[in-house]
Amino acid sequence: MVTAFAPGRVNLMGDHVDYLGGPVLPMAIDLGTTVRLQPGGEVVRLTSAEVAEAAEVALEVANPSGAQPAWARYVAGVVAELRPAVGGQGTVETTLPVGAGLSSSAALELAVALALGFAGPARELALLGQRAEQRATGVPCGVMDQLASAAGIAGSALLIDCATLSVTPVPIPDWLEVLVVHSGQPRALSATAYAERRAECEAATAIVGPLPRASLAEVEALADPTLRRRARHVVSECERVRAVAASRFDRSVLAEALTSSHASLRDNFEVSTPALDKLVSQLASQPGVVGARPTGAGFGGCVVALVVAGSAGRADVGDRRSWVVRASGGARLLPVS
Known about the structure:
The protein has about 325 residues and is α+β, with helices and mostly antiparallel strands. It has helices spanning about 70-80, 105-115, 120-135, 145-150, 195-210, 215-220, 225-245, 250-265, 275-285, and strands spanning about 1-15, 25-40, 45-50, 50-60, 90-95, 155-160, 165-170, 175-180, 290-295, 300-310, 320-325, 330-335. It has nine helices and twelve strands. The strands form two sheets. Strands 1, 2, 3, 4, 5, 6, 7 and 12 form an eight-stranded mixed sheet that branches. A four-stranded antiparallel sheet has the order 9-10-8-11. Helix 1 crosses helix 2.
């Protein structure tokens, strides 16, 4: 029996810039997905306590997006990319909320790949997972989620340059806690305007060049107001990532970055929602909270609040689900018990 674990991730700063080659600052978290697999046979069959119907995928699968039930598409995407010599039967367990923006799909992809025999560096595991997700969903996602899960380092956020895929650990200071709160609004990226936002950014790129290296003056000269707003978010968000990482989470730098990132996601990129806006406002006004912002792609899901250590347990989140998360190590095989 092979056992593989892959963590989810929370993005502290840098949303909608990874697919443009910008810098991001996520961290792998101590919530994740475990796959236990007994190798053998010509299909991959996994069951989950969360879903009644099993995922059963033939090794020669050609169209991962057509697999049923829906969660089997991610398994099929991995099988189509990895092409393992043998399949297997096993189980999937997860402590991650699904559809919350904490990369439950990336964690599933990487855990399945490791259980099926992937052996290689974190970067290659992440790229395989990215390709699998794109094949499974048709969403042109970036590589941040998979790389954060694959390359996680306990106690540190990861400064990832998505142009080169270089990863630099940025230690989380002892005075800081990370609180994740679900807005109560689930979402699936395939049902959102994610692909439309990426296309708008690529249209802006065709005019001014790579947005992570563009200046605000260059993007403000764009004639189309929609492209101008989208590009403004990307340029300013990249600046926020660099500032927070360079300051090593200086409190004043962090507070300003969290506030302006939420405003930009709401006004420039238009991926926040009334539920997210209300939750950010509620959290940001509480004692001990440095700031809060939507995390992940938006359109629903979770808000991340960075708080003074000891304050997370006292935060008023109402009846919403919440988690105090810690920076975790990356995807890995677990010892056989």
